[in-house]
Write a structure and sequence with these properties.
Length: 158
């Protein structure tokens, strides 16, 4: 009888699956790219990514709509929700476009639309986004890191 040496098998690390599909309602700028990086949480685009126009929503992925706190942005959100159809109810990430409170018309319209959403996560105005080259540089700032942690807690329900 011969014995063979036992070779330890490497620990299998579960692959990271796409969890969030981001769909900007009105434009695609540094705010959208930063929110994608916030939700991705260092997974290299494997947990969250922005869907290009016309791409179908992957099965089992949480849809996330993004818009700013302007009346125009909320009206674009309303148009998107009218065409939403039988897809799962989306989350809304409401991005502050100024250090002031959203205008009354935008707040009222959003309140009317909240029944069609899974929830609303508010991202505060981040002035550093005006001075960075990309989302990776933005995530180095403490206020962006705090906003990212709060955003993930809100959407994940923790």
């Amino acid at each position: 009888m011969t014995s063979q040496p036992v070779i330890p098998t490497p620990r299998v690390i579960a692959p990271v699956a796409l969890r969030y599909a981001l769909m900007p309602v009105d434009g695609n700028g540094i705010q959208v790219a930063t929110v994608a990086a916030m939700l991705d949480d260092g997974a290299g685009g494997a947990r969250a990514r922005v869907l290009p126009p016309g791409e179908t929503l992957p099965y089992g992925v949480v849809p996330v709509l993004l818009t700013d706190t302007t009346v125009h942005g909320v009206m674009q959100l309303e148009k998107t929700l009218r065409r939403w159809g039988a897809l799962p109810r989306p989350w809304l990430v409401w991005l502050a476009d100024a250090p002031a409170r959203p205008v009354q018309d935008a707040r009222f319209l959003l309140r009317a639309l909240e029944g069609r959403l899974a929830g609303v996560a508010r991202v505060p105005y981040l002035p550093v986004l005006r001075a960075v080259k990309g989302p990776d540089e933005a995530l180095a700032y403490r206020d962006v890191q705090r906003a990212a942690a709060k955003l993930r807690r809100t959407i994940e329900g923790k």
